[in-house]
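Bug #77: duplicate submission created two jobs. Keeping one. Sequence:
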Amino acid sequence: MENRLPNKWLDNLAVLDIAFQPIINIHTGRIYAVEALLRNYQEVGFDSIFDLFDKIYKENLLYSFDIALREKAIQKFIQIDNFKNIKLFYNLDNRLFEMPDFSSGNTSKLLKKYDIKKDNICFEISERHEISSDCNMEQVLTHYKEENFCIAIDDFGVGYSGYKLLYDSTPDVIKIDRFFLKDIEKDMKKKVMVRNITHLAIQLGIKVIAEGVETKEELLVCRDIGCHLAQGYLIQKPTLHTNEIAQKYSDMFELLKKDKRAENEYKMDSYLDKIKSLSVHSKMSQVIEYFKKYPETSVIPIVNSNEEPIGILQENVIKEFLYSQYGKSLLLNDGTKKSKLRNLISHCGVTDVNSDISTIIELFSNNPESKGIILTNNSKYYGYLSARAIINIMNEENLVYAREQNPLTKLPGNTMIERYISAISTNQDSYMLCYFDLDNFKAYNDVYGFRNGDRVILLFADIIKKHLPPEFSKAHIGGDDFFVAIKHDNLDDYFYIKNILKVIKKFTQDAKDFYSKEDKQRGFIVSKDREENIKEFPLLTVSASIVIIPKRAKNRFSGNINHILSSQKKVAKHEYNHLSISSLL
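Kept job's structure:
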């Protein structure tokens, strides 16, 4: 395309600059991509990037300008060390198709000029802004997907198309908007929504970027939810200097590694099938030879030129063609340049080999049609977990859980508690631990019997399961004693203490239903105490002993923590709100 921009806009283009912001693997801290961001627009007389693009759109020069800007971004991108092994995310204006000089193939010419593969470019299309009636977002997305470019939807969840785009066009990447990430560790509604968006995307073979990550807590929640990648000020602000783009963000890696819980580690390799992958550009004759060479294989992971998985090819899809002579001829006719294999690929969930095993199981369980999960290492194909392998892992997990759980409440028992408290003594993170003890339980048990006593214990177990956020670890010590704990940020102390107070209030109210009408009206029962004296006992309540362990607190060894929790529960029973709190120094 011969670019005929007026001199005014060529001069503006010379003043404008490109900043890059890294996008990293959320498990390893290694760079995956950079996003190109326009800078110096104020110097050419505009208050915002949007004002600049609106002006050039009105002059019918948007496409010419954008092509010139793409080349400027590419020229700077190739100055980054190891640029051939990372992606360039470039933002597209949705109104390009409305331009009279729009034509296909110009980006491919630029890539050829600078010796860059198509798989190293990802076009971002924003979902935030309403699109004109002449050109919709889906049309732009479909055009570039048909040209085999990677497509990302920016600001996902706050725009106009939402899930319809996932259904109709299936982009390669979605970016979760910053709105959903801000304070996500404290907002259960946001956490549930992001988890649902992420898991749906993964099942459709879409990568998920947590965009606008600004705190450690946001990063860790997004990792645990299942996001593949992260971008934001916590990692690095946009920079105009290409030498500031690192290949690995070591501080992020140390943060992620340090937070990796020992109890979540799993020897994945023993279950992993290292099936040889095939390139999406393979000829169909190569595919048929593959199945002949590996007759026991029913699924082939398909990768792009950067070894990133893009789906699976199932043997039964190929067999449908091979049953007829016409179908076989059609399949083997490689006269076209376009990949036939791409049209035969099925979606498959993709996650990192460092992902929590519970995340992998959840991804698989949520999709009844899943054949398995592809695992990556630093975004490149690593291996394949078949449905059978995941079911075996689930069975083993269930057996371990069954051995350690309390037979009445089905909650983990003392083994989990000992392991949890032991882990606290070996790191410097912040925690909140809570020991629950039902008040007046022995008297209730003596008057109403063991069967009703078990019903009360089950009631309390059900309350902590339902009314404490899922990030809490919950366990049953035995009898009427329970334990809950959470790794947390010091700023969240009050947030989690409120949850404990809600549990106390809920149990105190609900436990009244386990008394006779007469006892409920009196507000007490009569029974013998431990010395066999007849005494009046108030209705059931629960006391909570909380120990807060700040970051880098000393004396965090198991014996000290257990002693504080145990002795402090006696204090809690005499507090008006049945709660006592202390903190390690």
